[in-house]
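Entry: 1-alkyl-2-acetylglycerophosphocholine esterase
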Amino acid sequence: MRLLASRIQSILWWPGLLLAQLLPPPPASAEVASMSLTLPNPPGPFAVGSARIQVDDETDKESPDHVMLHFRYPTLHANTVTRALYIPSETARQLEQTYTLPEGAFDWVRTNSFKDADIACPFLSPHRSLPVIVFSPGLGSPEGLYTVFQEALASWGYIVVGVEHPLGRPPSDASPSGSADETIRRAKSIHSIVKQFTPQKMATWIPGFEEATRSQNLRGMTVGMFGHSLGGAATALAMQDPSVVQAGCSLDGPLYGPVLTTGFPGPFLFQLATAHLGNYSTLQSVWPRIRGWKRAIAIKSAAHNDFSDIAILASLAPELGIAQIFRGRLAASNPLQTLLAVGENLRDFFDFALRGIGDVNFLRENTTLQFTASI
């Protein structure tokens, strides 16, 4: 078992702020500065390298934008470099203000990723393509709040690309129509980014990539994607073009936009929170239009934000009051065990979908099967 993933759903911005006004004051910044917390060690055989790269997003040809990508990847050189930041300082300050946490609350979180370490030789698919996994966070959340999941996948040999979608302020439209629009924007952005994934570009983005793959006869990329909440919705929509994204997984995400009527091709895995299973009538109606291999499983005793680092931070630093801020969105009695189970499922799914190996049963002790179909 291994990882984790989190999305902070749009409706948490305002309720979170209102609730925080009723809570006892958090510890002062001076107290926070003396704290230290290391995230759970990744379970795989590799250490994890980290590189942040800004790329062009040409979704709008007339007004191209820039997107920050956070690459995590296997490395053998962790002892020669420094640890990567958990969340960049500017983003961390925005989150602390949003959730009324003391300044510096995210600075004491210690990652298991090492900045600009040279990549180890990654594994290839049977067709000599390089498996790459893209991650899209929940609405209003940075990709760094899902570090545990991403580090775990990288420790097993995958290149994982966390996409830092623009955030910075509470969304102005949290309605289904607004969420559908954002889902469409994200899917288009992901397509624009993934189309830039070439061996030549990777060699300029990831330290040591050219040397590590020189003898591999690399023929291209095979891309999987997963996301939390609205990031999961964007994953399903991105799957409509299997020439761009070949496999997808949604972590407690809804379905929005064109997929409600057109469906999309698999392979696709849904991991759902048992606390919200009553809200999945939409998934039941769309299920027949999801073509190919598909599974929907529920993670026992999990609520929406148990699919993120929020759960583990709330457990390991109770003095910050995170559990109270996310009341009703955290339910796991053992958040680490829940994260490991979700991460294990992610690894098994991408091993199967991108590499053609492994067990895709997913019927573990803490999961229940909701829907299933395979071809």
